[in-house]
């Protein structure tokens, strides 16, 4: 494959950093055209120095000034672009072949969608984009000849276990032939065995202490509540054209089997590996080649056992809420995701309890009732509905504070 020129959206985050780690191992294959960050501008500076990125995108003028002030005097300054429009527009730069969409939350939707509409290879880590706008996003991939490679480890595993994945990257509308079910594995997070009564008092740091994965704080809380798995069920629905009833969540505490595909003949194909995001990232970057990710040997002989158990919906009510949203339709999924982003933010900043997160989401979905019946058909309508649900969720949080 010819050299790829990358735009890494959210380069200073956990996925962004892992992406640059893989990229640095293959200077013959990858160049970095652009990087983006919302905070941690000092880190953005060191990344831009190390990669020789030609463009950086920052949120506002203050961040741009800070970037310039920190930039080393002996190096040519990259072009600095400012604001949310620049974030999306940079995805359309003709030099860019490949976009890593690794911004957290719905904030990452416009830029990820712009990359699909520009017909790029899109490495999608930002699951919220598919939850909020799956129909629009998949249509954009098809209409504009983009290539979509899932980076979320479960979806990357399923993608690897499906036949014809060259065509699958083109977002076909039918499920792969002969597939009976998709089995999404979930670790169960830090509270898999915590007494349900004790969940009321857990702290943000406890919720972010994931037993197997090191991730950003929002997705860490989502993993603790298992809303993350719910978002992933919705993500799998769009990526693989699979209805809710054929997507099953299986708790697998070791996080070594990253997900499975069950076929009509009874075969189950699984993808295994260390819980290290550099594996799915390298798969997406190298596709269809396999390239070194920096992940060490997987010593099967040291494995004592692989456990599988059903999810406890009493402990993880968010999972049931996500299935409800998927069955109800696109607007409900937007409400679910928006309410969760607001509730997780309020929990991380000490304003609501951990156990109030599912309550806020459930109440918000109910309050959005009639509006949930509509089906947004443009990015603007999606963002309108998202804003409305956020306002409702914020008010619900205030009432509890
Ligand atoms: P993170 O919090 O570590 O990083 C987020 C990045 O997005 C940062 O670079 C930040 O500056 C940027 N950002 C935040 N808010 C922004 C805004 N409003 N506008 C523009 N940029 C903004 O998050 P992460 O853990 O790297 O996760 C990124 C995405 O990947 C999420 O959607 C997450 O669900 C998904 N994901 C992450 C993992 C993982 O292991 N971390 C695994 C699977 C999927
Ligand atoms: Mg995942």
Cα separation of the termini: 55 Å
What's the CATH architecture name of the domain at 4-150? Answer: 3-Layer(aba) Sandwich
* Coarse shape: globular
- Strand content is 5-15%
What is the oligomeric state here? single chain
Count of β-strands = 11
Helical run tally? 17
Q: Would you give an account of this structure?
A:
With 401 residues, the chain is of the alpha/beta class. Helices cover 46% and strands 14% of the residues. It has a domain of 147 residues: 3-Layer(aba) Sandwich (Rossmann fold). The chain is built from 17 helices and eleven strands. Strands 4-3-2-1-5-6-7 form a seven-stranded parallel sheet, with helices on both faces. It is globular, with a radius of gyration of 20 Å. The site of nicotinamide-adenine-dinucleotide has 25 residues, from α1, α6 and α10.
SSE map:
Elements: E1 4-9, H1 14-24, E2 30-36, H2 41-51, E3 55-58, H3 61-70, E4 79-82, H4 84-90, E5 98-101, H5 109-117, E6 121-124, H6 127-143, E7 147-150, H7 153-161, H8 165-168, E8 179-186, H9 204-208, H10 217-225, H11 227-240, E9 247-251, E10 257-263, E11 268-272, H12 278-286, H13 317-328, H14 330-348, H15 356-367, H16 369-372, H17 379-400
Parallel strand pairs: 1-2, 1-5, 2-3, 3-4, 5-6, 6-7, 8-9
Antiparallel strand pairs: 8-10, 10-11
The structure holds nicotinamide-adenine-dinucleotide and magnesium ion (MG).
Residues 152-154, 232 line the site of magnesium ion.
């Amino acid at each position: 494959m010819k050299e790829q020129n990358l735009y890494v959206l959210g380069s200073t985050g956990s996925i962004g950093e892992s992406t640059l780690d893989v990229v640095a191992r293959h200077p013959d294959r990858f160049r970095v055209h652009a990087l983006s960050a919302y905070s941690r501008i000092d880190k953005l500076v060191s990344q831009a120095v190390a990669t020789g990125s030609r463009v950086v995108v920052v949120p506002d003028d203050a961040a741009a000034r800070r970037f310039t002030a920190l930039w080393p005097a002996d190096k040519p300054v990259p072009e600095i672009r400012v604001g949310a429009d620049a974030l999306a527009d940079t995805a359309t730069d003709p030099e860019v072949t490949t976009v890593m969409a690794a911004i957290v939350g719905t904030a990452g939707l416009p830029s990820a969608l712009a990359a699909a509409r520009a017909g790029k290879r899109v490495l999608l880590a930002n699951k919220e984009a598919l939850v909020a706008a799956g129909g629009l996003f998949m249509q954009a991939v098809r209409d504009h000849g983009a290539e979509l490679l899932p980076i979320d480890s479960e979806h990357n595993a399923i993608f690897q276990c499906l036949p014809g994945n060259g065509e699958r990257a083109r977002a076909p509308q039918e499920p792969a032939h002969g597939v009976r079910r998709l089995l999404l594995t979930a670790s169960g997070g830090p509270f898999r065995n915590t007494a349900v009564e004790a969940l009321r008092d857990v702290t943000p740091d406890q919720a972010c202490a994931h037993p197997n994965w090191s991730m950003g704080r929002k997705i860490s809380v989502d993993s603790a509540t298992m809303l993350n798995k719910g978002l992933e069920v919705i993500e799998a629905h769009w990526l693989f054209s699979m209805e809710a009833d054929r997507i099953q969540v299986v708790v697998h505490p070791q996080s070594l089997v990253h997900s499975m595909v069950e076929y009509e003949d009874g075969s189950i194909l699984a993808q295994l590996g260390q819980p290290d995001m550099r594996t799915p990232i390298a798969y997406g970057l190298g596709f269809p080649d396999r390239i070194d990710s920096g992940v060490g040997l997987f010593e099967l002989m040291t494995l004592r056992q692989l456990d599988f158990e059903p999810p406890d919906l009493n402990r993880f009510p968010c999972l049931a809420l996500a299935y409800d949203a998927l069955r109800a339709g696109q607007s409900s999924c937007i409400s679910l995701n928006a309410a969760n982003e607001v509730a997780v933010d309020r929990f991380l900043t000490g304003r609501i309890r951990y156990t109030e997160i599912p309550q806020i989401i459930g109440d918000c979905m109910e309050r959005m009732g009639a509006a949930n019946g509509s089906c947004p058909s443009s990015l603007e309508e999606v963002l309108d509905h998202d804003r409305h649900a956020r306002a409702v969720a914020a008010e619900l949080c205030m009432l509890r504070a």
